Structure formats: structure tokens, C-alpha cells
TrEMBL record:
GO terms for biological process: fatty acid biosynthetic process. Its cofactor is Zn(2+). It is a multi-pass membrane protein. Residues 59-188 form the Fatty acid hydroxylase domain. GO terms for cellular component: membrane. This is Fatty acid hydroxylase superfamily protein.
Length: 195
């Protein structure tokens, strides 16, 4: 029993260390892309309704993901002290680091969400929702990486990236990375003072 108690903290420490590696960072994308693609393919195969219904479900999944992104960033990554908060604080200290969730966690959460959805809606729609939420997560991750790794020339891309850079200086503002929709709706969008 004592060995099991010692294993818990050691395993958690190992997972936290692994989560800050480049390999973990890119494995997370690979796993999530593969699972999301499989869910979308299964959803399309099982779907017997209209294409408009399938397309609407995929759009709904992307909107749901945008809220999940906002919710996690605002209330978990900037919430009470936890391993998620510590990892996100490390990202604020070093935006070019590879701090991420353990590579298997987003896929496990995505599978769990899809199972819950399948209890509420037809399986085809559950798979389409899960797959589009997964691709929303991938878009978020790649967007976030690109914002910190690229100096944009196009004014609209500079403005998009600047919104997130503001968050690194004002951590209670601009929680959305892929979209500012929920910052507008929930009043956390940074509004610069007029000169």
C-alpha cells in the first residue's frame, strides 16, 4: 500500500515533466487529429439525414469548442492552483516553451464527450460533434503555436495575434485564442483606451 502511495506522486511528477516536452506537444496533435478524423468519418458513415444537418452539427461542434476553449482558459488555466494552472503559468513565463496537456488527455476527454453526446443525440451526430470539437482543439493548438512563433505581415493577422499577446500582459483579458466571440459575450475583451 505504501508503494502505491509513493507511485501516485511520482507518476504525476513524471507526467508533468513529460508534458513540457516537444515530443508530448506534437504527439498531442497527432492523437487528436487521428481521433477527430475517425470520429468525423464514423459520423458521416452513420449519418442518414441531410447534408445540411451534418454540416450544422459540425458547425455546432466548432461553436461548442470555442466555448470550451474560453471556459478552460479562463476558469481552469487561470483558476485555482492546480497542475493545469502551474503548466499555464509556465507558458506565460515562456510562451515559446512546449508546456501542454499530457498527449493522451485531450483524446480521452474527446472520447468521453462523444460517449456523453451519444446518450443525448443519435450516434452519427455524437461522432460529428466529437470530431469537430477535436478539430477545433487542433485549430486552437496550432493557432496558439503560430501566434507565438510567427511575426505576421498582414494587418488582420497582426491584429489577431496582438489580441492574444495582450492576454500575456493582462491575464484577466482576452481568453479566446481562436476567436474573441466569448470575450465579447462575457465582457473579458480588452478595450484599449482612446488617445
Amino acid at each position: 500500500m505504501a508503494a502505491l502511495r509513493r507511485l501516485g506522486p511520482n507518476l504525476l511528477d513524471a507526467i508533468i515533466r513529460m508534458s513540457a516536452t516537444r515530443t508530448n506537444y506534437w504527439l498531442e496533435f497527432a492523437f487528436t487529429i487521428a481521433l477527430s478524423g475517425a470520429l468525423l468519418a464514423a459520423g458521416m458513415r452513420l449519418h442518414h439525414g441531410s447534408w445540411a444537418g451534418a454540416f450544422g452539427t459540425v458547425l455546432a461542434g466548432l461553436v461548442v469548442f470555442s466555448f470550451i476553449e474560453y471556459l478552460f482558459h479562463r476558469w481552469i488555466f487561470h483558476g485555482p492552483d492546480s497542475m493545469y494552472r502551474r503548466g499555464h503559468d509556465a507558458h506565460h513565463r515562456d510562451p515559446h516553451g512546449y508546456d501542454a496537456l499530457p498527449f493522451f488527455l485531450p483524446s480521452a476527454i474527446l472520447l468521453g464527450l462523444t460517449v456523453v453526446f451519444s446518450m443525448l443525440v443519435p450516434t452519427s451526430h455524437a461522432c460529428l460533434l466529437g470530431g469537430s470539437i477535436g478539430f477545433g482543439y487542433v485549430a486552437y493548438g496550432l493557432s496558439h503555436f503560430t501566434i507565438h512563433a510567427t511575426r505576421f505581415r498582414q494587418p488582420w493577422m497582426r491584429q489577431w495575434a496582438a489580441r492574444h499577446h495582450v492576454h500575456h500582459h493582462l491575464p484577466d483579458r482576452n481568453f479566446g485564442v481562436t476567436t474573441s466571440l466569448w470575450d465579447h459575450v462575457l465582457g473579458t475583451r480588452h478595450r484599449p483606451r482612446r488617445r
